[in-house]
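Incident review: delayed structure delivery

Summary: a single-chain prediction request sat in the queue longer than the usual turnaround. Root cause was a stuck worker, restarted by the on-call engineer. No data loss occurred. The affected request and its eventual output are reproduced below so the record is complete for anyone auditing the incident later.

Affected input:
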Amino acid sequence: MYQEPEYAEQHTPAERIRIVIIGVVTGALVFFIGKSWLFPWFREFASNAPCRNIFGIEGVKALWYGLFVGMPVAVTILITSIFGWRGYKIIRDGQFPLAKEKVYRPTKVRRGAKAKLIGYIHLLAFLPSLLLAIWGSYQAKEMLRTIHISTTTCTASTEVESGVAHATFLFATSTTPRVFAFFNPKTIKKV
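Output delivered after worker restart:
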C-alpha cells in the first residue's frame, strides 16, 4: 500500500520576514562591535604583546594560544551547544525534522535509521573545530619555541587594559555614541 510522504510544517511568510530581520540586525550589531572595538583592540594588543602580561601569562603566549586554541575551542562550544542538543533530541525521538519544528522549504519527515544518522552527524559536528584546536596547540607551542622576543623595546606600561575596563563600564551605563570614541583603544593615551 502506497503511503503519502509526511512533510514538516513550514514557516509562514511573516515568520520568515521576522527571522530575516532579526538575523540582519544581529549580524549588523556583531559587525559594528567587531569593527569599532574588537578588531582595533586586538590590533593594539598584538602590536605590543611582548610587553604585556595577562594574569601572569606572557602576552605573546596568550596571543598565540588565544588564536590557535582559544578561538577553535570557542567555536567548538558554540557548535556543541547548538547542534549537540538538537542531535540528542533527533536520536531520542527518531525523527528529523523534530516534531513541532518548522522548516523553510518543503521537507520530508525522516524516521528510523536515516533520522538517527542525521542525529549522530549533529552530535559529531564539533569534531573538526576540536581537532583544529588540538592541532593549534601544537602549532602555538612550536611558534613560541622558535621566536625570540626582545623586551628591551618595551615602553612604560599602557593604560589600555584599565581603559578598556573603564570603557566597558561606560558602555554598559550610557547610550550616547561618544562612548565608542573612548571605547576605541586608539584614543587611549599611553603613559
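Verification: The longest strand covers residues 53-54.
Action items: add queue-age alerting; document worker restart procedure.
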